[in-house]
Amino acid sequence: MKQTRKSRAEIRQAILDAAISEFAREGLEGTSTQTLAKAAGITKAQLHYYISSKEELYEDTLLHIVELWKGLFFFSADPGDPAREIADYIARKVHHAIEFPDASRLFAREVARGAPVLRQHWAGLQDNVNLASGVIEGWIAQGQIQPVHPVMFQMNIWAVTQHYAEYEAQARFLLGTPDDEKLDPGPIIAEVTELFLRRCGLQPIPDEASS
Amino acid sequence: MKQTRKSRAEIRQAILDAAISEFAREGLEGTSTQTLAKAAGITKAQLHYYISSKEELYEDTLLHIVELWKGLFFFSADPGDPAREIADYIARKVHHAIEFPDASRLFAREVARGAPVLRQHWAGLQDNVNLASGVIEGWIAQGQIQPVHPVMFQMNIWAVTQHYAEYEAQARFLLGTPDDEKLDPGPIIAEVTELFLRRCGLQPIPDEASS
Amino acid sequence: MKQTRKSRAEIRQAILDAAISEFAREGLEGTSTQTLAKAAGITKAQLHYYISSKEELYEDTLLHIVELWKGLFFFSADPGDPAREIADYIARKVHHAIEFPDASRLFAREVARGAPVLRQHWAGLQDNVNLASGVIEGWIAQGQIQPVHPVMFQMNIWAVTQHYAEYEAQARFLLGTPDDEKLDPGPIIAEVTELFLRRCGLQPIPDEASS
Amino acid sequence: MKQTRKSRAEIRQAILDAAISEFAREGLEGTSTQTLAKAAGITKAQLHYYISSKEELYEDTLLHIVELWKGLFFFSADPGDPAREIADYIARKVHHAIEFPDASRLFAREVARGAPVLRQHWAGLQDNVNLASGVIEGWIAQGQIQPVHPVMFQMNIWAVTQHYAEYEAQARFLLGTPDDEKLDPGPIIAEVTELFLRRCGLQPIPDEASS
DNA sequence: GATGAATGAGGGTTCATTCAT
DNA sequence: TATGAATGAACCCTCATTCAT
């Protein structure tokens, strides 16, 4: 009786998952195709049947993450309450950072080395940021929030929320979270939300940011 | 007349500089000794005369940075005005991130991969954080600042200030800073300081955070 | 028509042969993987596909020889005539030394440097020697041979028979054997047999020891 | 106050001693100049001031041993009693093998690899062997000893006596000699002497072979 | 599709030797 | 003489990729 073969789609997904976690940990050069293949549960030769090169897999993996993020992290084009909008954004971002820290780490790694691959795709990033800046400037113009530098405001949110993925090892240590538990998003979301709402001169929304 | 040889100290410094910038960009595995040697202006064999292994150079480089930081980033044990103390800390941190982004990136990279090397030296980190937490708790107890989670407060400052090193490429792009200029620390310090002072319920110190 | 590739078994055998002869000549350190590969008729990278390290190949090669010898060199547990038993043993040993001098030389080399690898496998050696000592002591007890030191008796046979492998170059020179001929085992076996039989007070078996 | 410098002669002697013991253990390729220098108590650069190359040191060391042996191991040109002559020869040889096993091992190693260096100096060896063969043939002709193959007789003595140097590790193990003691030459000399005297049809000389 | 085998390039490191002082 | 520094060649091994089946 033949063992059930994994379908092409399953294999592709396994490769993508392997790529995210392995590239996140040791980078492009630090990850061997051997390691990737094993993590995906296939042989090295088989891997090369599905990808055309390690570099390209790396690029595809990054783009996959960026595409995903585009759907997750944005301010509504027609936002209602700034406090709610900001709080929701932060909650989504922190949850994601804690649930899928590898994706965040891989992205950070790429940017840290000068974004040689992502750089070619920054037009989209620019668009997203501009849209959000428009929203923020609208809030400011209508007196709904204190004046902030719209771009830096976004970057700072990004910085803080990403932090709990990128510095997970340190956060875990300083917050006393055991190795076999994920970080508790509740207190993190509460503190981060309060940080940015206060910056805007807004009151924190009572007790809904918790996990 | 013979060309003057570089002194031992100069070579050691060149190796350290090369290690910081190369390891920061491509990591331990992604950086070849060939690359390190070339960046330091020496031959590969000569490099091995000065270091005993790439791994050890990596570790030494990290520890060098951590030692340096211990002297730069701390809250005074006997702090006066919280606003001034926090503002000074942020200013120092941002300046450093912008002046020496490679050091920040190298550190971040190491933590992101789980800190296999730095982990052994985290006792010192704990001490530093505890000291600062004590200071912050003192401020809270005396009603000088609003209640904050002392550890997360520190981590968030760290996150935002580091960001301008780690995401330099992106920040440069979004802020429109040309490749041949450093980021302008003034506005960054202003925005970051306001962010954290407001969190504490404090007024920004007028106009001294600028570069 | 494609040239037939060597089979896995053939390649493994070629590597083993190369290892025996090259390690025998220049030792573990003195033999490069390059040399081994060339001697086996493969490339250096291909060699590493079949072995995991030079050290391990060295160890495997030694153990292979020792295993082979266990089946060749022993006294019968139920020996009949001591003279015949001893003569046969010597004949087998000399034939082997002359046919496969590299194996003998490799073994000698390893022991000469203190047996860092073989030492871990000396329990088996001890057993073999003890068994043979028992046989010899039985002969002595029954008055079949003159008293001898059982262990030294075995070592001396070993010494003399090995000699024609280890010192092949010298023996060849002193006995006038041309480079393209093997040593003639007949006279050697005769002389060595007579040496040890006389030690035991036994008469040489007439004329059967010759090749 | 200056530390007393070692004289040139002392340094040369230290280098020679180091060469014998290091080359004996790991061979020409397996011994680094670093190791030699450290064993001789000097620096690597200083070593190269005294020797012109590692190969030449190796050759000189071998020749030194051979020269020494010429003065030690020979049959008198005008021998009296064969038993005494043979017994003395064996005793000298065993003592030397046990006292200076490195020299014996180095020599054996060189011969085992085909004597690429010593081969050029084998005229002297031939002379020595021929002289001894003459003596032995004289004994045979005068009916003082049983007929033996003169050259093999010498080789066999050589084989057995060398054995306790070359296989010291194994002999130590099988005879139960602790690592911090030398092998006891007494029983070895007794057994070896009896072996070869019996071969000649001679009686062992009572109890003088012991250390 | 899948896989064992093969390979050229390059990885980190050692080393005998030379150089400069 | 002595020695820290330098170097080119090699060494063992890994790896991304390709090939043959």
Provide the gyration radius of chain A in Å: 20 Å
Report how far apart the termini of chain A are.
Answer: 47 Å
Order of helices and strands of chain A: HHHHHHHHHH
Q: Looking at CATH, which topology of the largest domain in chain A would you report?
A: Tetracycline Repressor, domain 2
Total helices of chain A: the number is 10
Task: Describe the fold and architecture.
The structure is a homotetramer of 211-residue chains. In chain A, α1 (8-30) packs antiparallel against α2 (33-40), α2 (33-40) crosses α3 (44-50) and α5 crosses α6. The first copy, chain A, folds into two domains: 1-51, Arc Repressor Mutant, subunit A; 58-210, Tetracycline Repressor, domain 2 (Orthogonal Bundle). Chain A is built from ten helices and no strands. Chain A has helices at 8-30, 33-40, 44-50, 54-72, 82-99, 101-112, 122-141, 150-166, 168-175, 185-199. By secondary structure, chain A is mainly α. Chains in contact: A-B, C-D. At the A-B interface, α1, α6, α7, α8 and α9 of A face α1, α6, α7, α8 and α9 of B. Chain B binds a DNA duplex (21 and 21 nucleotides) through α3.
Q: SSE layout and pairings?
A:
The structure is a homotetramer of 211-residue chains.
Chain A (H helix, E strand, L loop, with lengths): L7 H23 L2 H8 L3 H7 L3 H19 L9 H18 L1 H12 L9 H20 L8 H17 L1 H8 L9 H15 L12
Chain B binds a DNA duplex (21 and 21 nucleotides) through α3.
